[in-house]
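Contributing: when you submit paired examples, paste them exactly as shown. First protein:
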Amino acid sequence: MYGTGFEARVIDPASLAFDIDGVVADTMRLFIDIAREDYAITHIAYNDITHYMLEDCLDISTAVIGEIIEKLLDGSRDEGLRPLRGAPEVLTRLESTFGPLCFVTARPTPEPIHQWMLKTLSVSASGVDITATGSFEAKADVLRERGRRYFVEDRLETCFDLERAGITPILFRQPWNRKAHPFIEVDSWQALEDLIAF
């Protein structure tokens, strides 16, 4: 059974932080676009991405997957990166009401996605705080240091790590996290907004 959540309007915005890829940025759709445009790979669809480790679910060589991911991470294709529906509106509202937004990503460097975030959200540079950990496992330490008790994440394995570290994960529903879990789950930014104590 999937986690269903809890009463609305209970999360203090000051205790909340966000992952970026698969939560704010529609990175997997850009992956599919790059595969089609640069490699003429036309046989994959969004719902085919049933595992976070793409080589475990897609009929694409590991080398090509690596090349596409490099293009995603270096910022060279960010013009095609779109936000998930509702993310800019909710995040802009949060920043204007409660101050800087906290993001923790497993990306190796924050610069390209920071620039994309500033273009995507109606916030100043000081309104977006991004920590790039370079690994999924390092997220919990950063969140504890920042005093964040809730984290919106799309990678199910990371949610289990966070829970063990005393942080409450909120799983953002995606095709690659459809396994049984005990966590709060949202399927849209509107559903997430309903949990926040504005």
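Second protein:
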Amino acid sequence: METSTPTFDQLPHVVSGLSEKLDRVLDLLEKAGIASHSKQSKPSRRLVYAKEACQIIGKSLSSLYRGIKAPNDPIPSYKRGKLLLFLRG
């Protein structure tokens, strides 16, 4: 099997082919009873910005920042460059 690096112009075609192959693999796994295609088995978790986290917990931005630095029970957060993100679960 020959592998080559696709060009930028070929990317849509390559991604489409990979998506089709992945769908076939998932169908085979589902038929074998190994995987489930339904998304209801796990609750969706996503990252939210600090302002949305404030709305969710009902606290101000300064209280949120203090909660991150709390020594006993800090609020879990993730830093991506200058962005501060929180996992909503």
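If you have annotations for the second protein, write them as plain sentences, like these:
The beta strands are 46-49, 78-80, 83-88.
The mean pLDDT is 84.
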